[in-house]
Amino acid sequence: MTTPMAQQKGKTTFILFLLLMGLLLLVLAVVDVYTGTTRISFAEVTRALLHPGSVQDQYATILYRFRLPRTITAILAGIALSVSGLLMQTAFRNPLAGPYVLGISAGASLGVAVLVLGFSSFFAFGAGSLLASSSIALAAILGAIGVLLLIMAVSLKVRDIMTILILGIMFGSAVTAVVAILQYFGTESMLKVFIVWTMGSLANVTGIQIWILAVLIVTGLFLTSVLVKDLNILLQGEDYARSLGMRIRHTRMLIFLATGILAGSITAFCGPIGFVGIVVPHIVRVMLRTSNIRKVFPATILTGASLLVLGDILSHLPGQQGVLPINSVTAILGIPVIIWMILQRRKLSSFM
Amino acid sequence: MIQLQQLVIGYRKGRTQQRLSTALDFTASPGEMVAIVGPNGVGKSTLLRTIVRQQAALAGSIEIQQTRWDGFSQKEFARICSFVPTGQPPVSQFTVYEAVAMARYPYTGWGGKLKQEDGEAVEEALRAVHLPGMRDRLLGELSDGERQRTLIARAIAQNTPLILLDEPTAFLDIPNRYEVLQMMRNISEEQHKLFIFSSHDIEFILEIADKIWLLYPDSAHEGSPEELLRDQALDRLFRNTDIHYDLQKGLHIPLRQRYQTSVSLSGDAAERSWLEKALRRSGYPVSSSGRSSIRVEVKKNKYILKIKNEPQQDFLSIYSLILYLKNKLPDAGNA
Known about the structure:
Helices cover 76% and strands 0% of the residues of chain A. Chain A has 13 helices and no strands. In chain A, 45% of the residues are buried. Chain B is an alpha/beta fold and 335 residues long. Chain B has ten helices and 19 strands. In chain B, helix 4 (116-128) packs across helix 5 (144-157). The chains are: A mainly alpha (352), B alpha/beta (335).
């Protein structure tokens, strides 16, 4: 069988895109590590990276305890959020779906709110310690798992995917309402801890937590890669998928599980980070001119990682005091992209 | 190959059932084109969806290849029966080739990689619908006819003996309707596949289908188009209208006569019959006696109107002649 020219061309575009995006990610990651609120010279950073023992302890600490973990977290979070956005847009065949449509972030914030606002005496010892950040992550995971289990139970019963979407949004709103009540009764200082968590941060993941996060993300990505074949068929509509012999409920459960692991773990460790998950799959589809998940999935991984690392660089531009909340940075980066896309396309359905 | 046995279709809502049909006992064999015909809302789509198991039957059963259709596993069934739902597929940026290759889902492993036989099946399906040159076009860039052909290719690539289509000719213009149906007919003959499809294109169906499954809310009929016509079973399709099917003239739509004064025609026979048709549509009785007060002589490219006590007038087109007559003899002058 001969491979036609156009098919060859599509393949070349795809490989070129992956190479360029990979290169961009590398450059951004290097810039991210080399810049920060503390000024460390280029030479010092390079030396610290190559021969950790040869620089001041203070610099080594900054690099190995703060900058590298933060860059790695940004990469992991970018990947996880974009891929779960892709999963949700595909499962619901809705261009505006994102990692949080199932109410996962609402569940996570309920967990955190209960912990921070409900058991505030616990934090009297010092918010921000490793113990505190671990327990926040645990609470968030429990909250996210709770919502996820609820959604999965519902999706066993409910056949229509749109009903599931609406129920997910309803659960999310209900949970958010409970969080608001908890906030109302919380003390001022605890309220600040909670608000800071909702702003998102890539800086709180350190040591063993990075490994836990990495294992979770890899698991989620593996699940997604198994689902690629099914995801393409789902884009053609569930009736068609059924007629090809797909077990829709089974597939749906796996999609929700993968989304839960990816978005849930990132939310737990970094707080809710918006827009990346919605925007990245669209950027990829527009640039590659394809909806084929086989191509969109790997491209989304690289683009998502690049975008969040870029967000991280912008959140601590040199010369600034402190770090901007990552959630605001991604929103400011993401919203123009969404607006541009809406104005570019006539029909919402042509986004997919 | 397929046998509907006392099948009742409809919807279940809690404990109540809404039956859409009487008990259906239809059959069809390999290599046939079977059209499901019936008025809107009678359950043509429901019947198709019931056969492909996307909706439960209220009673009765279906046998496909001597096996009850609910006895197959989902995967087995995907190798027996393919389904092309109605309407436009969600516009997605897939190429024609990618879209057709999706039909190999039941045959590929979890990675979905196409083996050589899968590639060949896709190529063959593209050839069957005359689309091999379009393989790299995106679905969203196709015309409605090309898209429908892609969907049919996809059903063929699934390699099932039974292919069901819900309104494959909706949205298409007349040449495309004809082409799509003719294509299905060729494939059914060459590859010995059974096509079952719903459609409102009664004139095409009468020419092209081997069998019609005819649905009415209170009765059902099956048979070759000719039998159903002969037994006037199809006439109810045109209920509340005076349309009927004429063996010579095809669909006959009766016209209301609006004027008393008849128009008599003379001249070239072929040209005359066109004018006659136009006059009848406009409500004028037509005669050839020559005794009428309005006479038209048909010449080459010219119509000469002679009205009693008036100067004769020439018209260059049928349209302008009729327009003049209408103004000359307003409605009130009739009956």
